User: Fold this.
Amino acid sequence: MNEFFTPAILTATIASGIQLAVPFLLAALGETLGQRSGVLNLGVDGIMLLGAFTSYYVALETGDLPLAVLAGLAVGAACGLATAFISVTLRAEQGISGIGVYLFALGLTSLLFLKLVGTPLPIEQPGKVEVPYLHELPLVGETLFRQDALVYLAFALVPIVTFVLNRTTFGLNVRAVGENPAAADSLGVSVARTRYVTVTIGSSLAGLAGATLMIDVGIFQQNITNAVGFIAIALVYFGAWRPIGVMLGALLYGMTQALVLSWKGLGIIPVSLSDLAAATPAVITVLALLTVARRFRQPAALAMPYTRGG
Amino acid sequence: MLLALGTNPVTGYRALLDGAFGDGYALSATAVKAVPLLLVGVGICIAFRANVFNIGGEGQIAMGALFATAIALALPDLPAALLIPLTILAGAVGGGVWGAIPGAFKGYLGVNEILSTIMLNLVAVQIVNYMLAGPLRDHTADSVGGLIPQTRLLPENSWLPILRGGTQLHLGVLVAVLAAVAAYVLLWRTSFGFRLRAVGLSRDAATYAGMPVARTTTLALTLSGALCGMAGSMLVFGSISHRMVTDGSLTGFTGSAGFNGIVVALFGGLNPLWTILSSFIFAGLLVGGDAMQVVTNVPSDLIVALNGLVVVFVVSVEFLRRRPRAAQMAPPSEPPALSPEHIEQPVATGGSA
Amino acid sequence: MRKLLLMLATVAALMLAIPVVSASSKTDATTLKVALIAPSSHNDLAFTQSMHHALLNLQKKYGFELSVSENQFVVANAANIIRQYADQGYDLVIAHGSQYGGTIQQLAPLFPKTSFAWGTAGTTYGLPNVYAYEANSQEGGYVNGYIASLMSKTKIIGVIGPIAVGDAKLYVDGFVAGAKAQSQKTVVNVAYTGSFSDPSLMSKQASVFVAQKADVLTGSSQSVVGAINVARENNLKWFGTQWTQASLAPKNVVATQMYDWMPVLSQIVTRVQSGKLGGVSYRISLKNGGEKIQFNRAANTPKTIQAKAKKVVDGIVSGKIVVPSGL
Assistant:
């Protein structure tokens, strides 16, 4: 246990925790936006997979990493438009359509990976971006200020999304549409357009999350997300539909994962318990919510398709 | 998509329909596949009707299966007439407990059930991995090839009896259909069912009417979990291998029955009786997909993608229906109320989007 | 109700809407029909790839018809597919995954004319139409461990496994034994992530080992791609098993325990062709050449080390070195 408290190990653990948290954070932020406007998107994991595969394929073929990230984002946006079309215009049941999208994306990405990529090659990973001066601080500097550009972006989005939701007209519309679409509609807010925008942006973030995951691992693989998208959805509830709460949830989950891995590596967690230990992040998340159980209301119109006069 | 892979689509889809409904054997395979889907689906009907979103089917199936397996391994000499019902009951208990936990969390502590059920899925997977690789493992199968996370061959007394020779059609089909009917009766012909649906439609109204909302919510998830647990026991005791085995992954044992059950229930309009039909059709899609894969040699991933497409298609085409399904799906937990900020600010800014 | 009708209609519409394209191939009645069911994909750089590769080579030699069902990690699904292959009259069904064993045990008696090959495992359940095959992965693990310990400067090595079962556990146990045999002072840290399919966890586990000053890493399963990347970034050495992952990190992959299933498969196919459908357990090992330690040329490992490896291999083959099988 003493070995754990050495700077090298602590730094590696915390840095890993942050990196693990980022895909959760991005996907969950996106879902939060969508859900605040009343749309439930259960296909997040699938969109992440599509984003991961697309960015991998682009990176593999062109070697242009920023382009690859954009591609992942674009694919996410395209999925978002499709999802919005299905959920908003066609007013389909959102629970089912999301799972359908997930299944479709899972199969498609695995298939494309099989057929388009012969022998998987790793991509060139981006270098870490160091914040000048700050990154030289002991412990904190190494973990917080020496990360991938995408990590900074993800955390920067938290205050941005919070600001948009709480202080802009658009954000107001989003919340109104999510709470009482009829009233919003009567006041001239286009329910459909608002939802289209939130879902598209939200899905772009999911696509970005997938790309981030892929870049962090360095390569693509079937089912690389391994249900991360569903955990991200759960984190939206953990965060009570507020970006800062979602961020805390993502960090809690990622840090716990990193801690478990660290302790496994140090032998603090014996091999015989490695299966049970892998469940720790889930347990911790539930326990955390239990201890701070507040009754936060979900957006009242969540998962209910809106029809004027209906 | 099939064209792109160079196979004959007509052969493919014919194989799908053949494999699902083509002959007696295919029908029985489809029926057997439908059993866990139906049980989970019925459980979902109960839960969703109470406005409880049970996404924890995967975990409840696994825990039910685990408990049922443990019972069978512990009491191998019990006569079949006792052992089989016991295992089904054990499955219900195992799954019920796993549903009661998030149910109580929601009912009494206000913890969102989508969060707790998803998390408990992850926990259940690891518990199963641990048990199957450790305490419940079949040590006799250990060899230099390495230990396999599977149990001993389950006692024959526990195997679900086959209803029709030469097929896989087992008792589970009857149990599942009975469960669906029972659930229908429960929901619409008992006072408990009435309370459950009332809580689902409006929590506040139910509270004002003096209904035990917390208890009802908990029971709803418990029942849902119990049905999933029964599905788990069906999966084990009706399986071809007659063992509980997993590969360690999140859906390796269940085959995503927990999620597919949600789709099936929603397709059935959250009505247990219609869910019988939707589970059968969905099962046909799955079984047929396997057959298509064997005959045309397309990758199984294509089948998965195809399933997803069909689901999305069908759900999309639904826009033909005339009125919104608001009453059946996700009713608000409180009556939609306008909070002051919604009224004041739009007026001030002129309400333009 | 509407939904269900729509579902049926959709399936029918999908079927009818696509124009007919003839693409079927004719099968000779006397051609052997072989099927492979595997839990991961053929390009997983690990378990399935080794078998798939061998089968393809064998197919060139014998000319049999091959059908592959990959990514079948749900055992119940795989069971149905195995059954369907048998039903369709396939002569040889290869269930490449120890989790399929229980299914084989129950299905084989129902299809006495079909030959089932099952691996990696050691028992044929006493059935006349079941072949079993396994790999002494602990042997190659031992050699890898020995060389890893030899080459490690910090004498700290990290081992990342998926779940402590099957082939993975065998390899890891052998590796640890080999490293310790080279030097008792070498520290080998072993961790299992808890999943076969989470490369992200593997990569973070590897990072932990890097922080612990490990300069050599090894691991098993298709999710090691995450760990290999970390090795590449931090200039660590990597030892692999089942299939070469050198394409992922040409300078870092030192050696791989390669599985060559061809001799075993060859024997099985010839026996099946002559009507002997089972009853034999096969094993690949360093001794019979089914397992080979393949040094990655791009890594330029000194000849002295490669020679030392050969000495260890000879030791195992001759029986002088006994590798514990961890049971």
Observations:
- Residues 28 and 275 of chain B are 18 Å apart (CA to CA).
